[in-house]
Amino acid sequence: MFLRFKKFIDPEDRNAFFVEEVKRASDNIIYRIQAIQTGL
Fold it and tell me: Residue 20: which of 33, 31, 30, 10 has the closest Cα?
């Protein structure tokens, strides 16, 4: 839901910061999982 919402969000919208932080956190989680799986 958030990823679809991000495409339509106005940078001036008060929820823009929250959506960006959720995306950043999920990207970090995915990166760490991939690092663990590859043994980095």
Answer: 10
